[in-house]
Amino acid sequence: MLTKRIIPCLDIKNGRTVKGVRFENIRDAGDPVELAKWYAEQGADELVFLDITATNEERKTFAELVRDIARHIDIPFTVGGGISAVADVEVLLQAGADKVSINSAAIRNPQLVEDLAKRFGSQCVTVAIDTKYTEATGWKVYARAGTVETEHATVDWAKKVVELGAGEILLTSMNNDGTKAGFALDITKAVSEAVSVPVIASGGAGTKEHFADAFQEAQADAALAASLFHFRELDIPDLKTYLKTEGIVVRI
Amino acid sequence: MDLVIVDYKAGNVQSVQFALERLGVQATLSCDFETIKAADKVIFPGVGEASSAMAQLRARNLDKLLPTLEQPFFGVCLGMQLLCEHSEEGDTDLLGIIPLPVKRFETDLKVPHMGWNQLEKLQSPLFEGITEREYAYYVHSYYVPLSEYTIAQTSYPEPFSAALQYKNFYAAQFHPEKSGPAGSQILKNFLAL
Q1: Considering only alpha carbons, which residue of chain B is nearest residue A68?
Q2: pLDDT of residue A55
Q3: For residue A19, with 0-12 CB atoms within 10 Å meaning exposed, 13-18 middle and 19 or more buried, which class applies?
Q4: pLDDT grade, residue B184 (50/70/90)?
Q5: Are A136 and A107 in contact (CB under 8 A)?
Q6: Which of the four pLDDT bands, split at 50, 70 and 90, describes residue B85?
Q7: Nearest CB partner across the interface for A123, out of B109, B140, B180
Q8: C-alpha distance from B139 to closest chain A C-alpha (Å)
Q9: Residue ranges of the domains in chain B?
Q10: Which of B178, B186, B188 to mutate against chain A (most A CBs within 10 Å)?
């Protein structure tokens, strides 16, 4: 059976992982390649690398890093951050990335999703959606790293990008992100039921039970976390063993 | 050994080259007719869309060359599908080397079939040292049904061809270059054929 996927997310700045990482057995935890190798050995099913640098000059560094990651890692990985044109994607895919994730650029220019899907195939186009709930607005899509509210209702936007050719949705709840109180199950389930492509739940993971809820209750196909794994509050082998006892299909 | 990866600007060429590099093998990237023809072994990667990949092959005259090759040949993912007769993706005529169709998943499950799934009924030297139900990484929306050329199968939810062999043409729907140590072993097995 197809397994549920566990995905650590690494933020990259100037070619280095940010967020202090506690790894005693890693020579250099700021080195994304070292960290990625460690995660692959731990049983991560995929990795996501987000470039949080701003300038074009620094982005060139990121493309070189992507090449270095692809050279050393034997599991799939997605890269995102600051992608706004077909040419950006071409560079990253040629460097060896398996998928790219686009967010604000898709909101600015939805045609980009269609162009990417036609050019490179839907399988490598992940659309990342940052969403926030307020009583007044319901679940809305936010742009520019969650700073700008858009007109889009979250489920409608997810359906739209899938129609345009997105092959996967990475859904981050801003309400839950950083809380360690669990994933946003309601909106994750609503999106997962509304689209025909896989959905990655993101934001709020704090315990193993939260992952089980994301997979069982919210029907997510994959779940992503960052600091929970980086600070080793939860190790992937323990998490997967637990999920298996809960009857969730995982790769061990 | 002279190993050539067919480079037709439509594939996961770089990842396959890196995976071979991790095995200590240097492969040549080429779309040149003579270079490919003279190779000891040929790997044919691919991701993306069938009709544009066929257009890239035709533009390089490779649609004529590939069916005539006699050395061990390994098609990966879209590279496997392109070896077949016809694809429902874009209603595309393929290379026609293996007399099989390529169909779209018709299922309530999520499509693309994306992630790790199990290899079963392994029956080829390609899977030497690989245990039944080993996991491999997949990402695809179209599949090749089971046939007499199937040498491994995977279920989503119905069984389909995870790998094929037809004469000297081997092929895998999954990505050995992204399937961890098991994937490396499968590439190694191909190199040893």
Answers
A1: B18
A2: 65
A3: middle
A4: very high
A5: no
A6: very high
A7: B140
A8: 6
A9: 3-192
A10: B178
Q: How far from the centroid of its chain's Cα atoms is residue A84's Cα?
A: 17
Please write the tens of the pLDDT for every residue from A49-98.
Answer: 998 876 666 677 888 999 999 999 999 999 998 899 999 998 999 899 99
Confidence class for position B55, pLDDT limits 50, 70, 90: very high
**Is domain B3-192 in CATH 3.40.50.720, yes or no?**
no
**Cα(B84)–Cα(B143) distance, rounded to whole angstroms?**
11
**What's domain A5-245's architecture?**
Alpha-Beta Barrel (3.20)
Per the residue annotation, which of A45, A51, A88, A130 is the catalytic one? A130
- At A22-54, the pLDDT tens digits run 555 555 668 899 999 999 999 999 999 998 876
Residue A110 contacts B where some CB pair is shorter than 8 Å: no
Q: What's the DSSP call for residue B19?
A: H
Residues 76-135 of B with CB under 8 A from A: 109-118, 135
| DSSP one-letter string for B101-161 | EEEE--SSS-SSEEEEEEEBS--SGGGTTPPTTEEEEEEESEE----TTEEEEEESSSEEE
Which residue of A45, A71, A123 is in closest CB contact with B47?
Answer: A123
Instruction: Tell me if residue A11 is catalytic.
Output: yes
The verdict on a CB contact (< 8 Å) between A251 and B116 is yes
Judged by phi (left if over 0) then psi (alpha if -120 to 50, else beta), residue A165 lies in left
Residue A145 has pLDDT above 90, yes or no: no
* Residue recorded with tokens 């080259």: B17
Partners of residue B15 in chain A, C-beta under 8 Å: 70, 96, 98
Q: Return the number of other C-beta atoms located less than 10 Å from residue B117's C-beta.
A: 23
Q: What residue segments make up the domains of chain A, in order of their start?
A: 5-245
Query: Is B143 part of the contact surface with chain A (CB cutoff 8 Å)?
Result: no
Distance between B178 CA and the closest CA of chain A, angstroms? 4
Which site among B23, B29, B117, B139 would you substitute to test the A interface, given the most A Cβ atoms closer than 10 Å to its Cβ? B139
Q: pLDDT of A104-135, one tens digit each?
A: 999 999 999 999 998 888 999 999 999 999 99
Closest CA to A42 of A207, A250, A214: A250
